[in-house]
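User: I'm new to structure prediction. If I give you an amino acid sequence, what do you actually give back? Let's try with this one:
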Amino acid sequence: MLGDEGVITEEDVENVIKNASAVSLPIDNAPVHRIKQLFCVDGQSGVENPVGMLGNKLEADVHVIHGLRTRLQNTVKAVKSVPLDVKGAVFNPLASALAVLPPQSKEIGALLIDLGGARPTSSFTRAARCVTRARWQSAATT
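Assistant: Good question. You get back a string of structure tokens that encode the predicted 3D arrangement of the chain. For your 142 residues, that looks like this:
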């Protein structure tokens, strides 16, 4: 049920994101991020912010990023072994995009290719949302 008189409220948006995020993950995985993408109001897709709109049915597209629970826990444990406070884990391509892209590029969209890690990755980010990502296989010769 949506807000009073069919007007979509912040609470409606929070509830639909929570419901859309309730996906079945493999038992050994844990969610890292739940990133809202776009909304659909009464069949009208592509809505960025439905608050204040009139509608009977609200749906959300949510990008759930997850990882192996033990890997996440071991990383947090390793960081905590030095005098640092861990607030949470961050998906690397999204963190890179938010750190290096200027505000205009984040808003209109940008493809970020990260060649600095163990495995090259790419992510397309638009309006501070990670729209898609990929990890590439690489061949190295020694």
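You can read the tokens as a compact description of the fold. Here is one thing that stands out. The domain at 1-87 is CATH 3.30.1490 (Dna Ligase; domain 1).
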